[in-house]
Amino acid sequence: MGETCTGPHAGKVVQNASRIPWRLIWHELGLSSRWIGRFLRGLYMPIRAGGRDFIEPGGRTENRGEYEGQENMERRQDYWDRVYTDKPSTGCSWYEPCPTLSLDLIMQAAPGKGPVIDIGGGASFLPDRLLEAGFSEVTSLDLSAVALSGVARRLAPFGTRHHVIVADVTAWSPDRHYTVWHDRAALHFLTEAADQARYVAALRSALLPGGIAVIGGFSPDGPLRCSGLPVMRHDSASLCALLGNDFTQLRTVDHLHETPNGTVQAFQFNVFSREHER
Ligand SMILES: C[S@@+](CC[C@H](N)C(=O)[O-])C[C@H]1O[C@@H](n2cnc3c(N)ncnc32)[C@H](O)[C@@H]1O
Known about the structure:
By secondary structure, the protein is an alpha/beta fold. The chain has helices at about 20-30, 35-45, 70-85, 100-110, 125-130, 145-155, 195-205, 235-245; strands at about 45-50, 50-55, 60-65, 115-120, 140, 160-165, 180-185, 205-220, 225, 230, 245-260, 265-275. α2 (about 35-45) packs across α3 (about 70-85). The two termini are about 35 Å apart. It binds S-adenosylmethionine.
């Protein structure tokens, strides 16, 4: 675990690289988080017949495929947009100024420095650290357009090496491959078997054979809820069963996360490699 955190945000509590006090402005204008989320989603992902497009500020377009449970997805998006509008990301229980464990696990297991996708990346600083470490491209995927608009602004200096995708991972059809799949505390919100199966389907179609998946969430000793929502706690056995035979488990690391208000939460991170086709 020797990887140290460097870069402009190292050791600092960084709220948002933007110096514009958006929350204050929105509050003064009386704009609700629901409206703001819809507005940003309108900017970030115009709907087109038969599917959705996501258009990045740089102009790259990604076809995100059909989604059957549209209403369900919008409810989830509104929820998470409200979370990221109502308080600064530094006040969220999952906030960490430097994602040291994720970074170490990726650096130690990744086959080279190919493209990474951070599932449910929110406002995390992991993309910053990976890009600084020389990974070719990092994509932050999240339900919340509010969270991702801040990340996109912060990482604009990296140009086309950073991408954002506003999507529900359970409804997302990847149109390219990645060598690393990272998820810290997104899968654990999927408490229904059908959603978990869709998550694994997205993982299988996104991750190249030989690639690695780093999945962290509350361990069986961890809390029952996160951000006010019930969670499904996992350990290596439940993740192995979920992912199936074409994933080999490489490592398990138990981790205690201290939240900004001083509470300690038990996490477990597991690293898997995707088998090459036989
Ligand atoms: C607890 S936060 C963790 C954020 C980030 N991974 C980190 O470590 O700072 C969970 C994140 O997952 C996102 N999320 C929850 N359910 C999701 C889903 N079905 N698809 C995509 N993102 C989801 C939320 O919007 C939120 O940003």
